[in-house]
Automatic annotation (TrEMBL):
Lineage: Bacteria, Pseudomonadati, Bacteroidota, Flavobacteriia, Flavobacteriales
Top-level taxon in the UniProt lineage: Bacteria
Name by which UniProt lists this protein: Uncharacterized protein
Amino acid sequence: MSRDKQLKERWEQLVNILSNQFSQGEDLDLDAIIYLIGVQELGKVHSEYKKDEKLNLMHIAICRLLEPYGFYEFEFFDEEGWPHYKVKEELPPLKAGEQSVLMKEAIVNYFLERELIE
């Protein structure tokens, strides 16, 4: 199976699972899934977040997702339990479609590690 086709199938499977669990079946978009990963990484799943905290959660998720690609490295947890990452390598300039594919691939790999999908 081609890599692109496998990524597409795994992405669709993941969107279905997460959408059924978190949005009563309405398909979650890429940003919503990134947000969920941020909440998962912070570990405070039953909290309410302000707008700036939601952006920080998405940043946490992006750092965590791109860490295996060598772009970020975990540094420490602050006194409130928020993870902090440092930039190891700047992201190359990517077109919007390329960014989307990179993030989908990183998200699929994240959930493969957690055995939510196969």
